[in-house]
Write a structure and sequence with these properties.
Two copies of one chain form a homodimer.
Chain A lengths: L6 E8 L3 E8 L4 E8 L6 H24 L3 E9 L2 E2 L5 E4 L4 E4 L1 H9 L3 E5 H12 L8 E6 L3 E7 L2 E2 L29 H6 L1 H14 L11 H9 L3 H25 L3 E5 H4 L2 H12 L9 E3 L6 H9 L2
């Protein structure tokens, strides 16, 4: 373990198929990182396995901290689903969880203070406290990965919204033609600009031009690589992705005028290509240009964000 | 004067051509309403006249309150322009004002505490305190009149944003085709869905079909009346207006998930036709339907909002 402060928090990035966790101190230093797969499916029994793994991982990290004489202030969990302020997971389809009072249950099983929130909300708090949003009063974090989510921070606090759904930038309607959007599991912007949406558009375009692309495992990353290599079909998909993301950034800017907008998530990791392209697209379009930056937390965003839930 | 509480505030709705003001008590009761024109143009001298009228109106109302033994806690002014939290009007083109420290200047001239904010921010606070947003924690007020503006309230407080431009729903880009928008005085959504935008679209459509409409003084109201009378061209313009406003409401809902969205302003006064049409258009489109209601303050929104600036 690297040098940590005397007080630590267990931060847990709970995904649909894996658990990534670590001990995090007040300065955002991380040690004891643990990465385990869990057997969650969409049935209750598999969800139970994920829960047991989760308890095991937190116990193990807390014990390691205790053995070094460090006080464990609590555990924070970023969960892949809609979550209430009290730490109840309303719905996490990847884990087969519905209305699970996860924070309360973990608190009983672990004997530790536990905070649970939606993974993107956690990442938002993590960027604000430890990452690219440090020093801002208001912040919008746009997480573009397999799906698209977001978090709104106002006056240094998470704005959750009436249905705990504030920041759902993936549900933005990027044009009148999306007013017929009726898919509750898949936001309108998400359907075109998320990793999955990008891959789907690319496959469609490639098929139309008789360009062979893999049936399985074809990802946004592959499209971005092909675009960088100059493939015209991939370039067209990349450019259209930039248009959709630029529209989303513009609309966040118009409604919230945040101090900063942080681009996070898998597509966000291509920020060196994506952010300059968005900025070029938006030059002169808005009264005030957004301060758009890349996540500073990278693959640890989820762990640091979960730790930031425990204040 | 109707019965007021013992403590009052002078609330001033300062427009581009008129001043509307009144005494407002803690319960939002209004008395002593005054409506005067001022001679503002876009030159500094005319702006000075507007300032002098403004001082005169506030003095007169404060004196009337004093004569009745009521304590005047201060004055609030909603101004037609971008305004900083300190009450400086950054830019109010209708009055020819730039970087005018209006609150500080009025305070000196009047010997009263004075708060100044953008008119739509004031209306937002007014709806929250006295109107359709009472009891909410988070609120979005969308003011659709000659232009389109908005105000964001989070945890009961106005969220101003980095450039004091939060809530600028008129600047939303309602589709990729608006990514080439380069007009800084006229937002993209505003250009199609404001009163002026509606009239412009209607005139264009009427011209294309050889339908005579007045060259001057043709307004959104006339389009709505013609649509209610069944005129197909007006109906088409009305339906397209609903599409744009529904898109804006959907995007506010997605990003902010506020407790409520209040539709205010001139077009908002047609809320009995507009709101049900927006709700029909959005049925099933979003994970959570917005709670969309009409302004409860009507023509007094500006006065009550300005009064709400003085807490």
């Amino acid at each position: 373990m690297e040098a940590l402060g005397d007080e630590v928090v267990v931060g847990v990035d709970l995904g649909g198929t894996k658990i990534f966790a670590g001990l995090v101190d007040a300065a955002g230093r991380v040690a004891g990182e643990t990465y385990v797969a869990h057997g969650a499916g969409s049935d209750g029994a598999a969800g139970e396995t994920a829960y047991e793994r989760l308890v095991g991982v937190i116990r193990e990290l807390a014990a390691a901290a205790g053995a070094q004489g460090r006080r464990v202030r609590g555990a924070g969990v970023g969960a892949p689903g809609v979550t209430r302020a009290d730490g109840t997971v309303i719905s996490a389809p990847a884990l087969g969880w519905r209305e699970l009072p996860l924070a309360a249950r973990l608190q009983v099983d672990l004997g530790l203070p536990v905070r649970v929130d939606n993974d993107v909300n956690a990442i938002g708090l993590g960027e604000h406290r430890f990452g690219a949003g440090q020093g801002t009063r208001s912040l919008f974090v746009m997480a573009v990965g397999t799906g698209i989510g977001g978090a709104v921070i106002v006056d240094g606090r998470l704005h959750r919204g009436r249905h705990d759904a504030a920041g759902e930038v993936g549900a933005l309607l990027p044009g009148l033609e999306f007013l017929s959007w009726q898919n509750r599991d898949w936001g309108a912007l998400e359907s075109v600009a998320s990793g999955s949406g990008i891959a789907a558009r690319a496959r469609k375009l490639a098929d139309a031009h008789g360009i062979p692309v893999p049936r399985e495992g074809f990802r946004a990353e592959d499209v971005f690589l092909a675009a960088a290599d100059g493939a015209p079909w991939a370039r067209a998909v990349f450019d259209e992705t930039i248009e959709y993301l630029a529209l989303a950034v513009a609309n966040v800017q118009a409604l919230l005028d945040p101090d900063r907008i942080v681009l996070a998530g898998g597509v966000g990791r291509a920020a060196d290509r994506v952010i300059p392209a968005i900025e070029r697209r938006l030059a002169g379009v808005l009264p005030f240009p957004p301060d758009l930056v890349a996540s500073a937390l990278g693959y640890r965003a989820g762990v640091l964000g979960a730790a930031a839930l425990v204040s």
